[in-house]
């Protein structure tokens, strides 16, 4: 019993670590633009489809090259979404931006299925050996990679936001948009770069998830957007540490609920938790929300 | 008219109810990602009442609408003070719980020697009231469109009356509306109840059109489509929501040239449209402009 609890907690933390960068990218866009990007996951999915396509054409390509392709394609798709859905609505309606990003989601999903029409597409596996066994607990090597990636992404993002001029511009725009503009920061350019950064983070996370599962489906876009949205919501909208905390909580709750109640009730428990938290509205979830 | 055209027309009508319910919530100043749940509750309630309990469709539709309205109020009561994306996510969470609830719902009874009723993820087949009543597909399309026309007319009249002005005031500036002495919370609850009832009516008619429903029919994609229809059609008039549905289902599914590329065309079109017209095709200004031509 105790061993099960420990194993579930370990699995949950590993899952949470793979959600964390997904949530960070989503929260970064929301925190800076105050707009929810529903196309966040589908753009990452398109990146993974590009990598899968390259893997099929050129089987000799290594994981590093495929990851670079996935990242680049995700950033390009993200830039396309930003230009068409967010740049035009920067001063306007948040609802219009969100619905436009939903429309592009449909588009990206169809492009992906036209690229590779089979529902399940093989993806190169990250690791094909046995999982590690430590003191009676099982730890997948992929989980270690997820944890290391999450830590690296957090450190890198913190360095960018708090140690670079670009980070200063981002923080200035969030804290005081008008003052930032008056001191020569160009919001359109910063927002575009934030989008590219978020897509790169998401692309890394998505590639890792795809390589862990060794397959991708068109449902991946929905999955990524939902995990990002759920984790960001649980941790408080727009907060980056909150997004990481939310991702870990989401992973833990899912792992335990799956073990005790099964997969259907696992999702039910997650939504019930979110609904109850929203209804109770604790202080960390009460950041002002636009639209 | 060929069978395909009739089915496209019926589908436009069915989705019209969903778009209208999303439109009502948008007018009240909120955004719901969860209208598909009330559509689903309507479909399951209505289907169970006609197929399992042997009720006639009109009576079952009324009961299903009441259930949809009650469910919408139950979701809104603890969450209505949330704003923007928070409210949208709360409705999404509630709708996903409802969908999983449909997946867990197993309740079958013997009807004419065969088990009938919801069977979890296997779905709910045999909702045959329309077939047994001897209604042809054309007749059913007329029935759907009559119901939709009645609802639309009702809403159009309400919109031109004081009620419409109140609704827009509550949606656009709740603080000002409250200062004018309106009970904003109760008013919004009323609108949300109506939107739940409308979505449920669409669901009942959907279930009896398809004769088979499954939990997957009522996933978040359906709700977000409804929301998108209302927004691209325009928030200026009740007809906007129907224009939105007609644009997607009628134009793109009806015109077979786009087969296989439908979503690429539709997605790009909607995103561009929203750049040019962020409040949809028939926004308030356009509606006023058209109104002046005819007065």
3D structure, described in words:
The complex is a heterodimer of chains A (about 290) and B (about 300). Chain A has about 290 residues and is mostly helical. Chain A has a domain of about 200 residues. Helix content of chain A is about 75%, strand content about 5%. Chain A contains eleven helices and four strands. In chain A, strands 1-4 form a two-stranded antiparallel sheet. Chain A has a two-stranded antiparallel sheet with strand order 2-3. The longest helix of chain A is centred in the N-terminal third of the chain and has 32 residues. Chain A is globular, with a radius of gyration of 19 Å. Chain B has about 300 residues and is mainly alpha-helical. In chain B, a hairpin with a 2-residue loop joins strand 1 and strand 2. The interface between A and B is large, with 43 and 41 residues.
Notable characteristics:
A: 291 residues; mainly alpha; two-stranded antiparallel ribbon; 11 helices; globular; B: 295 residues; 4 strands
Instruction: Report the portion of residues of chain B in β strands.
Output: under 5%
CA gyration radius of chain B, whole angstroms: 19 Å
What is the H-and-E element order of chain A?
HHHHEEEHHHHEHHH
Give start-end ranges of low-pLDDT stretches of chain B: none
Query: Helical proportion of chain B?
Result: over 70%
Largest interface between protein chains, with number of residues from each side: A-B, 43 and 41 residues
The tally of beta strands of chain B, per DSSP, is 4
- What separation lies between the terminal Cα atoms of chain B? 37 Å
